[in-house]
Amino acid sequence: MTVTELPPFVRADGPDKVSGSGRYTADLTLTGMLHAAFRYPDVAHGRITRIDTSAAEAMPGVLAVMTDADVPDVHYTWAVADRTLFARDIVRFEGEVIAAVAAISPEIAKAAAAAIEVDIEPLPVVNDIEEALAEGAPLVHEDWASHTADDGIIRDGNLAIYSALQRGDADAAMASAATVVSSRYVADASHAAPIEPRAIVAQWEGEKVTIWTSTQVPYDARDGVCETLQLPASQVRIIVPHLGGGFGGKCGFHFEAHIAALARKAKRPVKLVFSRWEEFVAPDRRREGMIVELTTGLDADGRIVARKGWVGIDNGAYMADCAFFPQLAAMHVAGPYNIDHLSIDAKLAYTNHQPSGSVRAPTAPQGCWALESHTDELAAAAGLSPVEFRRRNLVDTGTTGPMGQTFDEIGALRVLEAAHAAAEGSGPLAENEALGLAVGWWPSFAVPAGAYAKMHGDGSVQLITGAQECGTGAVMTLRYLAAEELGIDVEKIQLVYQDTGAAPFGPGATGSQTLLNHGRAVETATRDIAEQLRELAAEQLEAAPGDIVLADGVASVAGTPTASIAIDELAGIAAGGNLLISSGTADVPEYPTLEGSHCVGDQGMAAWLAPQFSCHVAKVRVDRDTGVTRVLDVFAAHDNGTILNPIGAHGQVEGGILMGVGQALTEGTQYGDDGTQLNAGLLEYKLQTIADAPNIHTTFIEIPTANAGPKGSKGLAEAPNVATAAAIANGIAQVVGAHVTQLPMTAERVWDTANGTADQNGASA
Amino acid sequence: MSELVNLEVNGTTYPVQIALDRNLSGVLRDEVGLTGTKEGCDDCECGACMVLLDGQPINSCSYLAAQAQGRSITTVEGLAEGDELHPLQRNILATGGVQCGFCTPGMLMSAQALLDRNPDPTDEEIRIGLSGNLCRCTGYARILAAVQATAVELNSTSSS
User: Fold this and answer.
1) What pLDDT shows up at residue A561?
2) Model confidence at B61: pLDDT above 60
3) CB contact under 8 A, B131 and A275
4) Mean pLDDT along residues A68-96
5) Cα angle: A420, vertex A425, A428; to 5 degrees
6) Which of B78, B95, B123 is the last residue of a domain?
7) Which helix (H) or strand (E) segment is B26 a member of?
8) Can you give the pTM of this predicted structure?
9) Which of A343-357, A504-518, A606-620, B56-70 is least confident?
10) Does the structure show a pLDDT above 50 at A644?
11) Are residues A671 and A713 in the same domain?
């Protein structure tokens, strides 16, 4: 493993993180603080017939016990309001919170939670996507038609959300195809698995509550607390100490309200720290299990003439943020290909599993794995190499995608050629080694965001941003954008972030949105200060503001560098006058239009702003005796627009690829017949270690992109997670002679595929 | 049952009154007050709680605090010399080996133990030496580069 020399990137949070002085939520202690523990059911589906908290309440050291009866009667969750803070009458998955305890020690809290008597009458468990959608299946939500839902949501039985993509006439075109190939692929659910288990501390002062929490989305967390505890936004302040990773697992609103409610009842600060088991089973964010069936017709030249598909997605027991998943998954199995005739149906099914939710590029790694495995099958059927087949069919600048979006300048073909060339140039392959190639795509998400900026009298700057640093360095990079606008050293800029009480709204660390949205807000805010500095300098230097250049800490007159004044000095002048303060918001770029297509159950996921393209080539070695696969190298090429922070960008690609290796080979949740997770621990659910990590070779195809992020950038953090599993799959297939149809492609599944003993239907969900 | 235990951490002795069944990571964090040592799994699976005990790396989540009495404990807070970051700390920042930072303290302690016993490790030896520390952010390449760079730096210093 070698790391290319890149321009230096100084993380403002770096010294905290390497010295041990940085505080994460679990590191906080407040005077009088109590410890929380939750009571969970011991079944995945059942009717609660009795809850008796008296024994727990009587235990010495227990100061509060809460159940559904102790909180406002509110159903919450975006799109379909199907959930309450505490289980009410029915438990629908093993990680559902029935009751919560606050006590003077974690040990007493746990003992008290265990002492709560709960009688549950078991109900039939919905343990599988296709079972859930079958006629007469037991219902996960018998009463769910009564839940409030967004307009236009199609739901029926355990069908939570239905979406379809249509363009042209897929049936007629398929009938005219020279070659037709059908495939079925089944992906297990998997986990975000950040190394920091979530933690929350809540403290009330009068009517106001401050909540320190390990969330990726402080404003969503605040809004969830406000909705469920019926508080105005002004009374709830969310502060995020350093966040120990998220990957989507810490998006959404989770347990902040439970802890705030406990703290209010106990009249003491309360802290929750999750165990690793809880981190695996309780949050409503895990990567969804998925079934993909695809049929594609080709003409005699190996060009795609039609595609039909069906996608089944495991929503789990409650709606987290999956409403857009069917449409997004459908886009991923349609793929970045020129297809004039398309018909994809996608269904999100309620089951008695942990709720699914946005984990790094939701629906994409599994969708891409299925699609790109299918694509290699198509290439073989057409008698073309994988790279040649894609050359003939990939979208690119000026072409029209499967839903009728015409692309401005994009690098789809360029990433294909770059990754392919890098891999081909890497030397000969040994026996049982192969190069597998896959292409992925991912949208950029533009939403409103705000920033404040102020320059102090000494010339130092505070940037107050609603952005959330989950580790990527995206928030840290905001300093560089501000320094460039102001013409000052980056070290003069201090960030105030992760505090809803201080900063304007931001979407948080979700959807690769930090630099795309907050970057534009920071540029706007600091450009305003720069404008004020130019006016001040113009007065001092008797020049026109438009002629003032801010650079290297100095304001000077263009063409007359001797006419200058230090920016620090200007800041001092302003401190005695009008002050250098500003705010900025990010105007949302316009989304592209679609031609000739039709969406059923539209969730806005078919028209992609600033689409990102990637091609990964994995060099794999398969042990044919054991089925064990090693990924030796990954050659990655990415079009993410302009790269703002090379070290950060390489770090995202490398981390995303390794997560993809895990999803490809080892990371899959296994469910027992009772609907509970069998491998909810880090020994049983194996993440990749440094010993497993491939060498990763990354090329960025930088295309400054209009109508996107700062300086022509696109999103970045999720795209690297899209194509890796697919590339590995195509490498394995070359070695063993057939595609593994289940994800993860464990040693057993690879061995079975190599030996013709694989279950072609796969275990679904 | 609690007992007074003297723990020597980063060269300072801390008398702590603790129950004998308490683990070292919890005592370091809650009693000694050094929260740089992280807890990610409580089961020796993630390595975030790695500290050095008489120079040997251990998962402090699964080690009884009382057993550490009379021995020398080094945590991430003990790596830097005053305000001067240890080369491992400096290099892991320079290479980009720190993202969320939650695995970083444990990773640094494993790296320190590795370089103490093997000042010139091969890539393979670094991979083995750090394989008990999970990182979910980086893909490890930049962590490995930081250890390589530190070995080179320390060796050139010691030979000059």
Assistant:
1) 83
2) yes
3) no
4) 95
5) 110
6) B78
7) helix B24-27
8) 0.97
9) A504-518
10) yes
11) yes
Domain-located, residue A13: no
Q: List the beta bridge partners of residue A349.
A: A159, A314
Interface list for B 28-87 with A (CB within 8 A): 29-30, 34-43, 45-46, 48, 75-77, 79-80, 85
Separation between Cα atoms, residue B42 and residue A16, nearest integer Å: 23
Tokens of A155: 């739901």
Taking only the tens place, the pLDDT of each residue in A474-501 is 999 999 999 999 999 999 999 999 999 9
Contacts of A657 in chain B (CB under 8 A): 139
Which of B94, B123, B135 is closest, CB to CB, to A8? B94
The CATH number given to whatever domain includes residue B37 is 3.10.20.30
Q: Check pLDDT > 50 for residue A340.
A: yes
Please, which residues have CB within 8 angstroms of residue A220's CB and are 6 or more apart in sequence? Answer: A251, A252, A253, A508
Query: Is residue A299 located within the same domain as residue A352?
Result: yes
Contact A701/A637 with Cβ under 8 angstroms? yes
- Per CB-CB distance under 8 Å, the chain A contacts of B142 are 3, 647, 650-651, 654
Regarding whether A461 and A560 lie in a shared domain, the answer is yes
CA–CA distances in Å: residue B103 to residues A100, A187, B34, B45, B134: 29, 29, 16, 12, 7
In tens, the pLDDT along A394-432 reads 999 999 999 999 999 999 999 999 999 999 999 999 999
Instruction: Kindly determine whether residue B45 and residue A473, on different chains, have CB atoms separated by under 8 Å.
Output: no
In A84-177, which ranges are E strands? 90-91, 99-103, 117-122, 159-167
Taking the CB of residue A42, how many other CB atoms lie within 10 A of it? Answer: 12
Please tell me whether residues A353 and A265 are part of one structural domain: no
Which chain B residue has its CA at the smallest distance from A717's CA? B137
Provide the percentage of residues in chain A whose pLDDT is more than 70.
Answer: 98
Q: In what order do the strands lie in the sheet with B50-53?
A: B12-19, B2-9, B72-74, B50-53, B56-59
Say yes or no: A643 contacts chain B, CB-CB below 8 A: no
Distance from CA of B151 to the nearest CA of A (A): 14
Contacts of B149 in chain A (CB under 8 A): none
Pick from B118, B88, B124: nearest CA to B106: B88
Q: Are A18 and B92 a contacting pair, CB within 8 Å?
A: yes
What would the pLDDT profile of A736-750 be if each residue is shown by its tens digit?
A: 999 999 999 999 999
**For the domain that residue A371 is a member of, what is the CATH number?**
3.30.365.10
Q: From the list B34, B94, B140, which residue is nearest A658 (CB)?
A: B140
- Quick one: A612 and A731 in the same domain? yes
Give the domain extent around B29: 2-78
Residue range of the domain that includes A522: 450-585
- Do A419 and A636 contact (CB within 8 A), yes or no? yes
